[in-house]
Amino acid sequence: MQGNFWEQVGGRPTFEKLVRKFYEGVATDPVLLPMYPEQPDLEGAIQRLTGFLEQYWGGPGTYSEERGHPRLRQRHFPFTVNPDARDRWLAHMRVALDSLELSPLHDTTMWGYLERAAHAMVNTFDE
Hints:
The chain is mostly helical. 63% of the residues lie in helices and 0% in strands.
């Protein structure tokens, strides 16, 4: 395979499709939706997550140029991210990732990262 992961899976269109599908699920989730202060318009969140994932997987560094270091745990600390929220996030992301129909290698690679990231965001075990 040639190119980095971002290029191999189709670049920005692939990541934007992933994130938009993910937020379709979030928009209907009573636990996750309140974590997005810009609701009901999630466009800002869509652009931030798309940019972050693009940069992480080898695409343009626009996310850091605009927002600085990702600091994922710090940015999510104001929100209650318990195991239920994590599992809901992962469920919506699994649906979104399945919609891409990536090769098994690319799917497994991306899913492994998403699972690790979701587990790392848990900041409480309280309901």
